[in-house]
Amino acid sequence: AEFLGGASATREFxxxxxxxxxxxxxxxxxKFGQTNYEAxxxxxxxxxxxxxxxxxxxxxxxxxxxMHGRAGGVVAKKLGRPVADDFANTLGRTGSSQxxxxxxxxxxxxxxGQIVALISLADGADVLLxxxxxxxxxxxxxxxxxxxxxxxxxTLPYSKYLAWRGVMSPEPARRPEPARVSAAAAGRSVDxxxxxxxxRDRESxxxxxxxxxxxxDGGNVDDMEPxxxxxxVGSVTTFTIDRMAYSPSPPVIFAIVDFDGGGRLPIELTxxxxxxxxxxxxxxxxxxxxxxxxxxxxxxxxxxxxx
Length: 307
What we know:
With 307 residues, the chain is α+β, with helices and mostly antiparallel strands. The protein has helices spanning 30-52, 69-79, 98-107, 145-150, 158-164, 183-188, 190-195; strands at residues 2-9, 16-17, 26-27, 61-66, 115-121, 125-131, 197-201, 207-208, 224-228, 233-242, 252-259, 264-268, 282-293, 296-305.
C-alpha cells in the first residue's frame, strides 16, 4: 500500500492503566474515556485527510484499533464510512499488535486504488491513510489473517487460560518438573535449536535429525552439509497421548513425523486436540515455547497440523 499521510492528537487523561507487576489492567469509567477519544479522533482525522489531500468521502474503508470498544464504535459511526471487523468477537483484543494486524487483514483483500484509514485509539488518536495497490501482502508465501482465523481451534476453557497466565495454579502432574535449559548445550546447537537445521550426508544424501557427525548410511564422518528443515512438511506415522507427562497444557501429544524428502523425528504436536490427530495427519513446523524452569523459558520446534 501507498502511504498518503497521517496525523496524531494526544491529551493527558486517565483511561487504562496497570501498575508494574499487576496481572490485570484497570480502566476508568467508559463514558469519560469515550468523550476524550471522540475529540482526539476528530482532530486527528481532520488533520490526516488534509495532509493526504483527500476528503472523508474518498475513504473506502475504516479500520479502528483500540482497547476501548465503546469509543471505537462511536468514532467509527460518526465518520459515516464502511468499517472493517476488529475481530473483537473472534480473536479478541491483541494489544499493541492490533493496528498492524487489522491493517494487514484489510490490505490482503483490498482492491487496487481503495483508500484505507487506520485509526488507533490509545493514549490519544493516530490516523494513517493508505491507498491499496491490490498486490496483497501474502502473495507467494504464508497464510492470510482470515485463513489463520478459520484454522484455529475452539476456545479453550477459561480455567486453562488463567493457568497459562499464572492467575490460577492448578495441581501439577505427579512427575518431575523439567530441568532448566543448559546454556552450554543450547550454545553448541544454535542452528538446530533455533533454525531446525539438520545435516545431510554429502555422499549418500541421508538426512539426520538432529544433525549428526557420523552418517547412518555408509558411516561417513564429518562429511555433512546443513539441511534447513524449518519449512519442511511431513506426515504423522504414529502418535501417543500422554496424560501423565509434565506440561502446562496437558495432555501432551507426541508423534513420529516422516518428512517429505526424507528425515524422521519424534516431536510434540501443538495447535490441535487429541481427537483431531490420526495417522497420516499432515503437519508443518513451528517455533514454540516448551517449558520454563528457574526463570528461564525454553523454546524449540513443534509440529502443527496443516489447515
